Amino acid sequence: MFLWGTATASYQIEGAVTEDGRGPSVWDTFAHEPGRVRDGHTGDVACDHYHRWPEDLALMTGLGVNSYRFSVAWPRVQPDGRGPVNQAGLDFYDRLVDGLCERDVVPAVTLFHWDLPQALEDAGGWLSRDTAHRFAEYTAAVADRLADRVPMWITLNEPFVHMAYGYAMGIHAPGKALLTGALPAAHHQLLGHGLAVAALRAGGAERVLITNNCTPVRPASDDPADLAAADAYDILHNRLFNDPVLLGRYPDLAPYGTTLDCVRDGDLDLISAPLDGLGINYYNPTRIAAPTGEGLPFTDAGITGYPVTAFGWPVVPDGLRELLTGLRARYGDALPPVYITENGCSQPDEAGPDGNVDDQARIAYLDGHIRAAEQAAAEGVDVRGYYVWSLLDNFEWAEGYHQRFGLVHVDFATQRRTPKASYHWFRKRVEEGFAPTAER
After folding, report:
1. Which residues lie below 8 Å from residue 131, measured CB to CB, with a gap of 6+?
2. Are 192 and 270 in contact (CB under 8 A)?
């Protein structure tokens, strides 16, 4: 069964940040620090999904999807990231899973979508090896409660983005700007993944994945300096997180003048434990040139000549086909089935006089990318699912509520939900099914 779904993340939609024993996360702390998030927005209320989840499940039923990818908030389950389980926190996800099962919607649980308990960050966060072991304990607790009804598990969401934006550049929580000093956060996240895979297998999980944000990397020219820079960027963004999982080894980090000296014997065996699928989040390709000064060994040269989203990201649907077929060429039989666990776009959505949102640009975006995924499948990539980001307009990290990705418009003052034109289009597209073909 091909999985058609939508995706969300706990801090972006739940709100209720102090209810039922939930502890603070790094995002609670970060969002309340002046200047960190645009206009001082926070996820304190967000979409109030914690209280409005039945309404949101009804929206999924109306959408006709057969799967829903959501994340569990670690601080709801273990307020300090370790120790006794907060049963009230798990009760929320228990109700949510039951509600999905009653509606014949497959729950796809992401265990970590960036909201690390603040207490663990205070103890070193993902720069500390201990966090990987705490993650495994948390995973075991969630699996013990939910694995009897949740067939699909995703350990980490976009460890590259969390390392780069959270630890290297300081754009996201926890707000550290360590540049290459952030690399241990890559290994410790992946070690946590490996330990979590073992915990999930022991807990009876049916399907286990990791979700990586990947981008096809294009050199700015055929100049050897640009080619070398593009290769360096590909190592950092793509291969640093795919190679250990799929091949059991790290790529050579020589372009960065460093090594991962935090890797211990046996780590890569854990990290490369067999998976049932690879989650891929795709938004756009990247064009890379030689560095223009000291620092990182590449420069983002930008992609021009395409429409852009409200975020300014180029809309290049064929980049998804390029990415998927490139992964198949690089990893061959080591590449498991692929699930596109996020794909979508922000648009300046505004309700018209009739209260509706006619987001034709989003419809064109989704149509082009689904066609690209079908073409990749026709070229031999085993594509088994497609999840739109996102079900709801939500808290978009450092952009606050200024970027809208949802199929459903949310009035954040009233919490009123209004399905957009793209919602109704996607419902019909799901009915058509996924048809691998070179030309649809």
Report:
1. 81, 116, 120, 123, 124, 125, 188, 192
2. no
Residue 304 CA to residue 314 CA, distance in Å, equals 7
Q: Which domains, ranges and CATH numbers included, belong to the chain?
A: 3-432 (3.20.20.80)
This prediction has a pTM of 0.98
Residue that the structure tokens 């049963």 belong to:
87
**Percent of the chain, pLDDT > 90?**
97
Report the distance separating Cα 113 and Cα 103, nearest Å. Answer: 25
Q: DSSP readout, 324-386?
A: HHHHHHHHGGG---EEEEEE---------TTS----HHHHHHHHHHHHHHHHHHHTT--EEEE
b/e burial code for range 121-157 (CB count within 10 A of at least 16 → b): bebebbbbbebbebbbbbbbbbbebbbeebebbbbbb
pLDDT at position 440 is 44
Q: Which amino acid is at 220?
A: A
The catalytic residues are 158, 342
Token pair 């998030």: residue: 37
363 close to 343: Cβ distance less than 8 angstroms: no
Q: Is the pLDDT of residue 241 over 50?
A: yes
Ramachandran sector of residue 228 (left: φ over 0; alpha: ψ -120 to 50; beta: rest): alpha
Distance of CA 250 to the CA centre of its chain: 21
Residue list for the binding site for substrate: 12, 113, 157, 283, 389, 396-397
Residue 291: half-sphere exposure toward Cβ, Cα within 13 Å: 12
280: helix, coil or strand?
strand
Query: Residues forming the annotated binding site?
Result: 12, 113, 157, 283, 389, 396-397
